[in-house]
Design brief:
Blueprint lengths: L1 H4 L19 H17 L6 H8 L3 H5 L5 H24 L5 H13 L13 H11 L9 H6 L4 H17 L6 H21 L9 H15 L3
């Protein structure tokens, strides 16, 4: 899979950036260091001024790539979900049994993340932690409806649709496939957040337990 992924360029909505950061060394440096800085101090405390200091470049050079830090966060989250989508496709394309497909999908969503050498300027481990802690902040805004129309969340929604299709394969009569799919994908993130910050209100203290919980949820929900 890694060999296949190494030949694929992760696609991100071009409206999220002023200049594609993948096209220059400075752009890649901005992405690499923004991941490190957001992971360290959080998106609320993150500023382009602080990022400029970190990369030893003028703040104005960052604005040539991104309009603001919200667009940067949307870019990073979109990149992450595109990366997960490719893993999902490559891990399930040769499976014909619907149950096997959905089990593999849950594994992709919940397995511990490791660094992908195909993208040297992106630390996927840190980016995964940003998703767990910051992803909801990318859409819990007053602008969400406009941004949704602009397609900023299309990859995340496409992942949910892929999972919804697997659910329908297992039980075509189930009435709430999209609701179940979105609940499962969100829970794969949220249970990790609870594990790290509110362990007293989750039974999932590891990625393996999260996987088992979600498989249990889907299997019992879809029983005919």
């Amino acid at each position: 899979m890694k060999r296949l992924l190494s030949n694929i360029k992760i696609q991100v909505n071009e409206n999220l950036y002023n200049k594609d950061p993948e096209t220059s060394d400075l752009g890649k440096k901005i992405i690499q260091n923004s991941i490190e800085l957001i992971h360290e101090i959080g998106i609320e405390s993150f500023t382009f001024k602080k990022l400029g200091v970190k990369i030893q470049s003028n703040e104005s050079s960052i604005y040539r790539y991104f309009e603001n830090k919200h667009k940067l966060l949307l870019y990073l989250t979109s990149w992450y979900w595109s990366w997960i989508e490719y893993q999902l496709v490559f891990n399930t394309f040769n499976l014909s049994n619907p149950t096997d497909k959905i089990e593999r999908a849950i594994q992709v969503f919940t397995q511990p993340v490791s660094e992908d050498s195909s993208y040297e300027h992106i630390n996927e481990v840190l980016l995964n932690e940003i998703i767990i802690n910051e992803f909801s902040k990318s859409y819990l805004t007053k602008e969400v409806d406009h941004e949704n129309k602009e397609g900023y969340f299309s990859v995340f929604k496409r992942l949910i649709t892929r999972l919804q299709e697997m659910i329908v394969e297992i039980n075509p009569e189930y009435s709430y496939p999209y609701s179940l799919a979105s609940t499962v994908l969100e829970a794969s993130i949220y249970q990790s957040f609870l594990k790290d910050h509110f362990p007293s209100i989750t039974d999932c203290s590891s990625s393996e337990q999260t996987k088992n919980f979600l498989l249990h949820l889907i299997t019992n929900t879809l029983k005919k």
